[in-house]
């Protein structure tokens, strides 16, 4: 009897694994079958790599002069600050586009365990944004460092510079996951994108107006600010949290939001 139970357990695990594999494949197809995904990815690469190259070209001579009050490393991933808008859009649309079309009901009918759908979307969105974000940062580095090297201030791809490359990928992946969680919570494209962009770009800067150490710490802990040191060899903000400490804070915030979205997902009608 114990042998039979063991075989049944293994068969059940194999079936569950295969089931999640199908769900993962379906989410991959759904993400890339939407035209907006392609345009947003193109915009991410153009903004991330293009703006980094442009800003390095325009400031290389100044950065090499004695008048410069910023380090070249602060500019080598500059375009990724703008490209994060595209990560927000990708993460949001991966969820809200299905709610808008009603396709989410079909997804949940095919996969009754809604947590599997959530997890599959998270794996696909985070994986894609990590790869695209890292490659975009590398393209920006190659373009921008060309102009820095001409002025004798080129940066070798090692140490904090190398960390910033995959740090950009990690940051965009976390931002996409945060946007995905907000998408599940509000289930509306414009509202979700507005909430995330307002939190990252507007509220994240406005809280610094709060006087005293309270304002300083709230500013450091805001999602968009916490991991800012991870995405650049030298941060524009000397008071920012350390690269990995800040990213850990951001991950904790994203995890809390995902937990809330996961909980509500199983308790609300599609």
UniProtKB/TrEMBL annotation:
Organism encoding this protein: Aeromicrobium wangtongii
The protein's name in its UniProt record: ABC transporter permease subunit
Key words, A-Z: Membrane, Transmembrane, Transmembrane helix
Transmembrane feature ranges: 38-60, 75-96, 117-144, 164-186, 193-214, 243-265
Superkingdom per UniProt: Bacteria
Stored Pfam families: ABC2_membrane_4
């Amino acid at each position: 009897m114990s042998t039979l139970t063991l075989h049944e357990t293994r068969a059940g695990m194999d079936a569950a694994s295969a089931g999640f594999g199908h769900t993962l494949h379906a989410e991959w197809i759904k993400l890339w079958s939407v035209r907006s995904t392609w345009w947003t990815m193109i915009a991410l690469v153009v903004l991330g790599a293009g703006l980094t190259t442009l800003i390095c070209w325009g400031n290389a001579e100044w950065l090499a002069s004695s008048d410069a009050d910023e380090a070249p490393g602060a500019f080598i991933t500059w375009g990724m600050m703008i490209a994060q808008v595209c990560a927000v859009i990708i993460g949001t649309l991966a969820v809200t586009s299905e709610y808008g079309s009603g396709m989410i009901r079909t997804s949940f009918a095919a996969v009754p365990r809604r947590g599997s759908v959530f997890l599959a979307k998270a794996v696909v969105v985070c994986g894609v944004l990590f790869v695209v974000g890292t490659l975009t940062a590398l393209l920006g580095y190659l373009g921008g460092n060309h102009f820095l090297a001409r002025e004798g201030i080129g940066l070798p791809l090692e140490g904090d510079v190398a960390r910033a490359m995959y740090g950009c990928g990690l940051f965009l992946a976390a931002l996409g996951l945060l946007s995905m969680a907000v998408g599940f919570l509000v289930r509306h494209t414009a509202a979700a994108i507005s909430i995330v962009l307002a939190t990252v770009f507007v509220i994240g800067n406005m809280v610094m107006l709060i006087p005293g150490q309270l304002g300083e710490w709230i500013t450091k802990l805001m999602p968009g600010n916490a991991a800012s040191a991870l995405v650049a060899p030298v941060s524009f903000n000397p008071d920012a949290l350390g690269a990995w400490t800040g990213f850990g804070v951001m991950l904790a915030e994203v995890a809390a939001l995902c937990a809330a979205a996961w909980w509500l997902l199983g308790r609300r009608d599609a």
